[in-house]
Amino acid sequence: MGAMWAIIQPLGMVLVFAVFFGMFIGIPTDGMPHTLFFYCGLMPWVFFSTAISAGSISLINSSNLITKVYFPRVIVPVAAVGALFIDLLITCAILLGLGLYYGIVWSAAVLMFPVMLLMTIMLALELAIWLAALTVKYRDIRHALPFVLQLWMFVTPIIYPVSVISGKWRWLMYLNPLTGIVEGIRSSLTGRSFNWTAIAFSAGITLFTIPLAIKTFQRIEKSFA
Predict the structure, then answer these.
(1) Per-residue pLDDT tens for 34-74?
(2) Helix, coil or strand: residue 50
(3) Given CA atoms 119, 125, 129, 132 in this order, what sign does their dihedral have?
(4) What's the CA gap between 87 and 201, in Å, rounded?
(5) Is a pLDDT exceeding 90 seen at residue 5?
(6) How far apart are the first and last CA of the chain?
(7) Planar angle of CA 171, 28, 41, nearest 5 degrees
């Protein structure tokens, strides 16, 4: 089915969320249509989770090549994430189409949409590089990662808005770098006011972890073969 999986996976999840969390439970969506609200969260999440899952095992899957030929090993996790860019573009096109379907009038805020996408890609890429190196050394990571991603999904505001979290606990949500990204995507498409605090946390954490990921990779790289 090829690229159709890039469409089926997020749309299938959106359908389930819209029926159970939208129609049956009635989770608030800050005035957005349920389908559009959920898809704004699932679009970056599906790319992010798939990218770090693929990136984390990329070095192990390429072990035969790594032990025979020298080349910059960081290319392997980067290529694993890069292979998903087309899927990301497809899901972005669907999201923009949903916006048109629901009659969303875009404003200058939509210029932040590519910025949020870039932050998503950077975050996924650096975590993929970091986890790829750690998985070579600690093989249990590839077994623990699916469980961690399950938990991470529910602490990311995909099926609920940040506004439902009490103000005194909201700072904990901001420590999740995907919070600012998801909220930023929703605001960029609807023209709502941006949660600059959440976006600042996401940008700061993303930029701060880049050198940590590269340093970890370079330190463990010496023992890859």
Answers:
(1) 899 999 999 999 999 999 999 999 989 888 888 787 778 88
(2) helix
(3) positive
(4) 27
(5) no
(6) 36
(7) 65
